[in-house]
Amino acid sequence: MSSPTEFEMRRRERRRRERLRKKRIRAAILLIALIGMIVIICVAVSTFAKRGEADAQNGGAASETTKVSPSPPVIPTVAPVSTSALPPASEKNNMLDILHDLGQTKRVYLTFDDGPTGNITPQVLDVLRRYNVKATFFEVGSLIKANPDAARRVYEEGHLIANHSNGHNYEKLYASEEAFINEINECYENIKAVTGEAEPFKLVRFPGGSYDSDGDKYSSVKQQCKETLKQYGFYYCDWNASSGDADGKMKDARQLLDFMTVNIYDDNNVVVLMHDASTKQTTVDALPMIIQYFIDNGYTFHRLDDIGYQSDSSSSNTAAGSPAPTAAPSASPSVSAAPSASAMPSASVSPSASPSGSSANDNGDGNLSATVSPAVTAAPRPTMPPENQGGPIIIN
Ligand SMILES: [Zn+2]
Fold this sequence. Notes:
By secondary structure, the chain is α/β, with parallel strands linked by helices. It has 12 helices and 8 strands. The chain has 2 domains: 1-57; 67-353, Alpha-Beta Barrel (TIM Barrel), CATH 3.20.20. Strands 1, 2, 3, 6, 7 and 8 form a 6-stranded parallel sheet that branches.
């Protein structure tokens, strides 16, 4: 028989075990609740991420769609182009001069430098497709290799891929004429590879622009390189309008539009400098407004190899830019987002009214260049501000 002390000890032991059992049950319940919460959080995060991905695949353009009048999507095709008026590069290879001399009116050439990139180029293409507008992409050879899908899409959607050197490193690129032409040829090979074309159009944009400037330490070699390009049959093209998306100061979409409208230097043949480098989200945001601006002012959109020229004898049809290829050369007329100039009210663009002294301090490379203040008048076309700083872009 147990003594009272023994009995008391057993009772205490039972209670201790009971407490321990309850403790374990509580711990188990807590653990299950914790695992449950983790599972719920994981599911929520994954759903959110998938939704974000879907939005991104839609070109991130949902918000833009609400801002601009949506156009029906068009089936992309390679745009027919006309190079009938092009003199041989061996004779004349400055494309801005060639365009100016042709005397055509109300033509705009949108250009995008420093791509292709995996994040910005597809968004630019989405906007261009929505408006059925063709453009020119001055691509960096090494980036074509790094982002072949983006480059291929540029080509397949009917835009022109042109040459912006292979590495975009000023110091290496402008070390000598030989270094320069080697890079141009390398980039050209990358363009061939990605487009499958045996002989793509030979067009170069000098990284940093080719404007002759005292402040540009590469200026003299650039001027020599223009002659080298002639020997190799390459045209080159600077710009005469800038969105200012690379002038070093971050601008929002509206500021980019405003900057561009006061920095147009040839209002009949507008070559607009923009960038599809990986940091240029605001360029994407501004693009619908920029396109709309030109549509509203009766412009037609062209690639830089599309410089078909109609003689004076047919000027009754061509005075306003039609029937030269319009923004929608590849689509049925019903889906053209940019009607030919003749169909538009001829609201005049007034870059000539831009404030004297306004500066277009864009060097085309994301580097701040000197502010130059030419007096902007209607004619003749002034020399665009030069760039004076060199440096590689960030290759991503
Ligand atoms: Zn560049």
